[in-house]
Specification:
- It is a single chain.
- By secondary structure, the chain is mainly alpha-helical.
- 53% of the residues lie in helices and 3% in strands.
- The chain contains five helices and two strands, in the order E-E-H-H-H-H-H.
- It has helices spanning 36-54, 58-71, 86-101, 116-136, 143-167, and strands at 22-24, 30-32.
- Strands 1-2 form a two-stranded antiparallel ribbon.
- Helix 1 (36-54) packs antiparallel against helix 2 (58-71) and helix 1 (36-54) packs antiparallel against helix 4.
- The radius of gyration is 18 Å and the shape is elongated.
Amino acid sequence: MRKRDEPVRLTRIYTRGGDKGETSLGDGSRVSKLDPRVAAMGDVDELNSLVGWAGGLDRIQNELFDLGADLSVPLAGNEDRLRITDEAVSRLEAEIDEANASLPELKSFVLPGGSERAACLFLARAVCRRAERSVLAVPDTNPRVAVYLNRLSDLLFVLGRAANAEAGGEEPLWRPGPL
């Protein structure tokens, strides 16, 4: 058994174990690749890729791997598994407050776009919200997983606004009706 602080070693990239439409969960059980848990894990993986594209959020990417590990093992009690904690959610809330403190008050809904980095962050936010919905459809999950994703979508929104402010352009705001 690997120790928690020991890196994961991948000796083979392909195993052929999924060739018939099934995959293994973190507890070793086999499920269909169409299982809602596998779909949610895929949405989290896609989110992590977009967060990586935006850049500079290494801790978040590591936490998303932790979240995927949490999601890959059904919540069955007090077993010794890697789980998302209240502390991880609190860190996100502190980062939201810090990043939001320097931004102007919102005067309308913000259109996703602006600078390239902001657009990446807004796209990551949209996928984060999808991942949260996917997680909510999975029974026997750590409830903090959905809470973490909810806060992360807020952080990505605020960071998108901050990226636009740093780029020096106008914040793209929604103007209802014909222009």
